[in-house]
Amino acid sequence: MNKLFTAALLLVACLPLSAQKKSVVPPKKALTADAFAIWKEIPYKAISPDGNVAAFTINPQDGDGKVVFYHLKTNAQDSVRRAAEINLTADSKYAVFKIKPPLLQVKEMRRQKKKKEDLPKDSLGIYSFASRKTEKIAEVRSYKIPEKAGGWIAYQLEAKKDVKPKPEEKKPEEKPKTLPDTLKKKEVKPKPAKKNNDTNGYTLKLKRLADGKEVSFGFVKDYTLAKYGQGLLLTTSGNDSTMKAGVYWYDLKEEKLTTLLEGKSKQKFKNLSINEDGTQIAFVADLDTTKAPLRYPKLYYWKTSEPKAAILADETSASLPARWIVSEHSTPYFSKDGTKLYLGVNPQPVVQDTTLLPEEIVSVEIWSARDSVLYTQQNKQLDATRKQAFAGVIHLQNKKLVVLANKDIPTVAVADEGNANVALATSDINYRWSDFYDPSGFNDAYVLDLSNGARQQVISKVKGNPNLSAKGKYAYWFNLEDTTWYCYSVATQKTVALTKSLKTSFADEENDTPDYSSAYGVLGWTANDAALLVYDRYDIWSLDPEAKIAPVNVTKIGRQQKLIFRYIRLDPEERFIDPSKELLLSVFNEDSKQSGYYKLSLKDNKLTKLLMSDHRYAVTTKARNADKLIFTRENFREFPDVWTSDVNFTASTTKKLSDANPQMKQYKWGTVEIVEWVSLDNVPLKGLLYKPDNFDPSKKYPMIVYYYEKNSDGIHTYVAPEPLRSSVNRSMYVSNDYIIFVPDIVYRIGYPGQSAYNCIMPGVTKLLSLGFVDEKNVGLQGHSWGGYQTAYLVTRTNFFKAAEAGAVVSNMVSAYGGIRWETGLSRMFQYEHSQSRLGATLWEKPLLYVENSPIFFADKIETPLLLLHNDADGHVPWYQGIEMYMALRRLNKPAWMLNYNGEPHWPVKRENRIDFQIRMGQFFDHYLKGAPMPEWMRKGIPAVEKGINKGYSTK
């Protein structure tokens, strides 16, 4: 052995240096849970308005990250650690952001039970693009910059900590002098200094970035900057000397402070609003300093030409219905042209009798079968209902208030950024009773005259959601019942069908639920409401709202070439489509799964191909004032790093900016490909097959089948090594020599479980025939709807060696009458119209509910089953998991159930997600690879050891 070892060393020494270097390259590692800590993500991406600097964060999944500023002209890069809440100024000169304290430091101090006020605070960072230097300001609570102007920043400081005086040396005690009581002076305690806190407000600094000049305001409760940087609007509780409590306007150009309303410290001033040009201001004030339960907020208004703000609307306004008030929960806003002020109003709320003791209050819920909304929904919506405001408008020229909405017609949408004199009101109030089983619902729609509130009904009981065109000339909607686009002319009061005569479908052609097919959607309106642009499955269509011109397919080739075109809105403030400009379209090839970008000219409907590849492209953001953009591209083997290009994706301008995960080269990964087969229902299907990097077709691999509905279009999705909350991590499993199969599933109404079986089993059989899948070691994994399908499959076949099912519906009979506690919704709609796809009530087809319920066939299960169902699941009641667990326990089947206390539909807390991935990995490794059974499976973890002993040990 020693001679062989010595000979081997001599042989290496004789090799050329290049060969020696090549021979010592370490082998690639398999991904484990340890990789979670080192894998990065890029949650923030932006480009400066002038297109010269890209900014993006590179953050670990749990820990301190950084923001990178990439100067595109010079390729220079700077970074600042722990940056968050990043904004780039409109003048392209600065980036402003919070700097978080080190996470480890915060955790350590929390372990030491430090008080919240003693924990380290955020700082403010101001990075100059010109100097490439960062100014830091300590202990900043919040900051704001003008949306469309540079030069200024306003920020609030944290409260200063109280510093306890050092103990002084004690002087020798002197014998007190005695005086007659009449000559003794009464000791007067000094008034305690006012402190910065949530009640009093905090110090606000206004900083001019060019020269650093600052203005300070004390005890500020709320503040906002005008859109174009004309001024700063703030409210303060006052400092009793130089500034009284009230609302103030600081003109940034004149550097002048104006008092808009002076009040008292206990009065509330909120909901600040500034118009587009900074000449008008509105806010809401509650001037009552008592604790009366019924409040009477007042809407104040100020123009720069006026000395003070004045009441514009309150409970005494003649135009308000009796016992209505201005809403304190709605922020008023101006129309873009400044001629109108929109506000919220509401009836006086019902208030509790404050003289009653707690034991004197009757607390009972009365559930009526004729309640328009389920009581459980009412409970979930209680806060929103109490704060509900109804739209009103004030015409500022004559100060006329018009109430636009009420309890019967609650929803109002304005047009032309509030400039139009019409609005659209919609209501589903008359049809809400049936929402608990029919989610598509009905709507009534009305055109409102903003000058007097007069209503003209557009449509009644339509299965659709009417909207208003950009300029307000038309109301339009997609009718789910006849799958047709309609348009109503405000001027002529006539309705026309826009697509009824076309053979092309504008509704989901692949819908396999027992409900109406939804529309593919709207691109938008062209200038002056000339045309409505809508999507079919593939193409973009231009529709004449008057139906005088025949519909035009502007992309033409989509359906023919199976290309799905969709518009990318590069300007987030775009209100209509400019037909003189070229549109950037995303494109996806339904057959090849390639994606990329095309360019469309609406002048001549010319399509130009810009880019197409085996990637997924996303998050395209354009510089506001330059033809530069940033985007991401990814596939299974490529992390979605940040790229830049011009708007034509010219090769010479396209380059990669980030490299967030260079360590990926050290790990074994995998490949993905499309596989095809035919279901037992004779439907052609596709699926994704993930193989290990070192795949050997002569070997036999264990395989896990994961599914939900359709996944094959996601072939180019990167799967980071991270603790996923509900599914196997495809990258990690193939790195550990598993094969992962993800089949598409289509459904027959009434037979969702059988449909899953009919799609999945022939797909598995197809793969077995290729010879590289170990037919004795195939597992199943699914969550929620996938968890249900897993539970169903193991009642139909004992082929699978092991299965994990999360948040299962095990009993459709009991689940049908259950509640989705996250929303308070009844579960009935899911079975009659939605994902569960039974298409009938329990009383119409009771056998379907039984036949599709795994619980009734649990005695057939031989597959070891790992269940996950959390006790705070708001989507699938966790008693469904309990029913399945108890059935398996009673039948003495191999089963385990994980319940992460307080977690919802899936584990959210990172440590819980890591734990779930480790346990699921151990479960499959044991059954599919023959690894030793861990302690938690072998013996269980008793309640007294919960949170102490994880039971991962396999010894």
UniProtKB/TrEMBL annotation:
Source domain of life: Bacteria
Biased composition (Basic and acidic residues): 163-185
InterPro entries for this protein: AB_hydrolase_fold (IPR029058), Peptidase_S9_cat (IPR001375), Serine_Prot_S9B/DPPIV (IPR050278)
Region annotation Disordered: where it falls in the sequence: 163-200
Record-level Gene Ontology MF annotations: dipeptidyl-peptidase activity; serine-type peptidase activity
Record keywords: Signal
The keyword Signal belongs to this UniProt entry's keyword annotation: yes
GO biological process: proteolysis
Signal sequence annotation: 1-21
Domain Peptidase S9 prolyl oligopeptidase catalytic: 755-930
PANTHER family: DIPEPTIDYL PEPTIDASE 9 (PTHR11731:SF193), PROTEASE FAMILY S9B,C DIPEPTIDYL-PEPTIDASE IV-RELATED (PTHR11731)
Natural source organism: Chryseolinea soli
Name of the featured protein: S9 family peptidase
